[in-house]
Amino acid sequence: xxxxxxxxxxxxxxxxxxxxxxxxxxxxxxxxxxxxxxxxxxxxxxxxxxxxxxxxxxxxxxxxxxxxxxxxxxxxxxxxxxxxxxxxxxxxxxxxxxxxxxxxxxxxxxxxxxxxxxxxxxxxxxxxxxxxxxxxxxxxxxxxxxxxxxxxxxxxxxxxxxxxxxxxxxxxxxxxxxxxxxxxxxxxxxxxxxxxxxxxxxxxxxxxxxxxxxxxxxxxxxxxxxxxxxxxxxxx
Length: 236
Known about the structure:
Layout: E1 2-7, E2 35-39, H1 43-49, H2 53-73, H3 78-86, H4 89-109, E3 111-115, E4 118-123, E5 127-134, E6 138-146, E7 149-156, H5 164-167, E8 182-186, H6 189-209, H7 212-215
Antiparallel strand pairs: 1-5, 2-3, 3-4, 4-5, 6-7, 7-8
């Protein structure tokens, strides 16, 4: 896995990654590799699932109810209770606006790409990091439905690991020891998962179709090709 870090201007109206060979990719794809799918998270789904805006709304609703009940208990009229509750609305609106802006920036600066050989994740609002995840290092992939969208979770084989904070929020929650990258907040998650599954199957079939001395033996547990022990000249 290779990570490339760059600073970006998240407020520029034009494509902010003008140095990229192609949007979402740190370099041009080789001649034998093609892009199959590319997309970004939905800002609303990110706000609800990664930033837990729903829970924040419930919390603020409880605070408003507490303020109104407390005012009424202290002898305030209905109008005075409403006025006391209204005084909290500007701070609530500010907090929700901040969370919404963060979710929008995350969605705007994130690009997920599936090619015929790997999954590429360009993530990060200020410090943009690109993760290349070759199919040979993806032990399994699955998707889960979340409301009107869903997430695609990738389990990595081998010994390489990515720090949880480097991936957040594009990582399966609470998997700190063995982090699992996640294509998060996709409206068309099921269709994208099927596309990825097909690409993984085709790549696996292609690896098995190659001569053993070209790819080495494939580990049955991780699916990662091992190096050939004998030199090419003595492998025939």
